[in-house]
Amino acid sequence: MIEDFHFLRPWWLLALALPVALLWLSSRSGDARNRWKGIIAPHLLDSLVVRGSGGSRFRPSWLLAAAMAAAAIATSGPTWEREVPPFVENTAPLVIAVDLSATMNAIDVTPSRIERAKLKIRDIIAERQGARTAVVAYAGTAHLVLPFTEDASLTETYTDALATRIMPVPGKDSTRPLQLAEELLSKEETTGTILFMTDGIEERAFEAFKRGAGSSIVVLGVGTAAGGPVKTPDGGFETDAGGGRIFAKLDVEGLKHLHTQTGTEVATITDDDTDVRWIMQRIRTNFEQKQAKEGDRWRDMGWWAVIPLVILYAVSFRRGCVVRFAGIVLAGRMVIPTEVDAGSLADMWLTSDQQGRLAYERSDYAAASAHFLDPMWEGAALYRAGKYAEAVDAFAAVDTAESWYDQGNALLHLERFDEAVAAYKRALDGRKGWPDAQANLAIAEALLKAKQEEEQDEQGEPNEKPDQVQFDDKGKQGKQGRIDIAEQTSEMWMKNIQVSPADLMARKFSLETREKTP
Questions:
Q1: How many helices (H) and strands (E) does the chain have?
Q2: Beta strand 193-198 pairing with 94-99
């Protein structure tokens, strides 16, 4: 933060000379001897000047000078952090590591721990709206269920099929899925998050979690501290040597120690969506911090000086005359409803961009677009309001990579795919390797190609009727035959094979384990 501190408008610091001049003039005017020394003889002046009482030597000019200095510093735009572009979508990659050890079959939460975890995964996927997600399953070994994909239905299909029976090696080793998740994220250009859904992290894995703290690891504990019996794949219950049912408890203390020793964010599963909102907030915060570091705009923090500035100005006037006068004017305007409305009162205290921001946060995008003077924020509001053509015009007023990216998004909605492709390319020219722009460029190019092929197909359809139609009756004289099933192609045969995702993953994991075993 210290090394990033600077001023956006440093030339306004020259205004600091004004409070210095004010203090100098105030000191000169308060010296009675200095005012009369040119008129009264020095040997008489000491006897004629009446000195003030020995009370407080505080002067209102000091407050006024402090207010002027604060105003100069605020106007110069102090800043130390970058601002996230207002229109970049949250596409942070997420790796979900699902614990498939035997204790995840415990039924202390209904219908079971693993089934509840799968329901939470569905909620997370729905909240992320097509962002890139990968899934890893682990017990004694760790295996990739799905690489990064934006296909929510595909992710749900395979996560719904997760079961403890598909794991080839029993037990629990949390370091393996962590390593696999970090390998997946290392290939991504955008910072990501690793989410563990488990009923406990073994203490021997703490060191690995501490080393991987930079990857933003989040752990959601599944289960209860009271625990519950563990079901077997055949519908029975796990028993000990004496025949009693085995109870598995959520390792709450272990998760607390994990947070204390490694700094890993930890929470436990809830019946409502509180846990999902907590996870989404952690993913969003990590993503925004990274985006802010890579952004091009600095956040102007000068507005924080408004609060002390108002207080200083209020108390810098003797007897509160100015403050009282302002209160009378405000009260007078408020008792005349025909001349005062909410908009005029807002204009008294807020700038147009501040009013637009308030309307934007209330999701009143039409009103926000009317207030914004900043073209980027105006375009964002118009886009949210569904006025894509107007949004393109607003964004076009700024020649930056973010502006071209936003124009491309609006042009996609207008189905002007060729212009969208050009806009995304301009965005990439200004910001090399931007993952969001690259992904949207690929989509725009695919849509443009599909549109061109559709137009070609429409042009190629015959519109003229045939000159004549002839029927070949000789075909009726052919011999009846049959096609042997062996003549079917291998592709047709493979399409008829019915294999469930769970069985497919079980075979895949087993083969991977055999290949790794010496």
A1: 22, 12
A2: parallel
